[in-house]
């Protein structure tokens, strides 16, 4: 049955892509993938691995939830919004000047209540308010993003190693983000003491047996026999040992 299933999948692959429905999913997909050889999977990582397994991998550990922060683009948006507000500010200043000129009608320029419905009031509580709201919200979120600590090299390297072990699983242009090492942030950064950060720079520390936790990686199982399990550090064990050094 498994042999017939693999034969059918190969037959489907040979058809013109235009003849395939966009929602095509083989029946018993899990069983079929298990019946494929390592060579067949590696030849078409983009089909059998793809984003499904890549997403499972980076979601398996908070340290791997790494993304681009787009620092230059965010700064450029800040500058653009700032300039738009500057233009509105100048427009408001022009209205203020016009209402206080010698030949202007006697308008109470010290009362919002007396200014209700005027072009100046509409500008202030309309376009200026909305643009400032957009600007402030953007700056608030961006400041939180900028305050995140740099992503440790070992974490971005772990992701890049997965991509290297699963070549063509993710399109080249779409996985290039991980190599922007100075423009990355972690969704859930860990606060670590300077001593812990110093120790983690050592490969011997990270591989030290007493605080390794063997954690089955269901995503890699069956795809790369050499990586059927991965090791992660037990936080509680490390903290206990470090406390003894204080």
Which terms would index this structure?
single chain; 246 residues; mainly alpha; two-stranded antiparallel sheet; 12 helices; elongated; disordered N terminus
Write a concise synopsis of the structure shown.
The protein has 246 residues and is mainly α. The chain contains twelve helices and four strands; from the N terminus they run αααααβααααβααββα.
Walk me through what this model shows.
The chain contains twelve helices and four strands. It has 246 residues and is mainly alpha-helical. α6 packs antiparallel against α7. The N terminus is likely disordered.
**Structure annotation, total helices:** 12
Number-wise, the strands total: 4
Please state how the strands of the largest beta sheet are arranged side by side: 1-2
- Give the terminus-to-terminus CA distance: 62 Å
Task: Indicate the structural class.
Answer: mainly alpha
H and E order: HHHHHEHHHHEHHEEH
As a percent range, the share of helical residues equals 40-55%
- Mean pLDDT equals 78
Instruction: Work out the radius of gyration.
Output: 29 Å
The main pleated sheet reads as: 2 strands, antiparallel
Shape, per Cα inertia axes: elongated
Pick out the low-confidence regions: 1-31, 216-222
Which strand-content bin applies to the residues? Answer: 5-15%
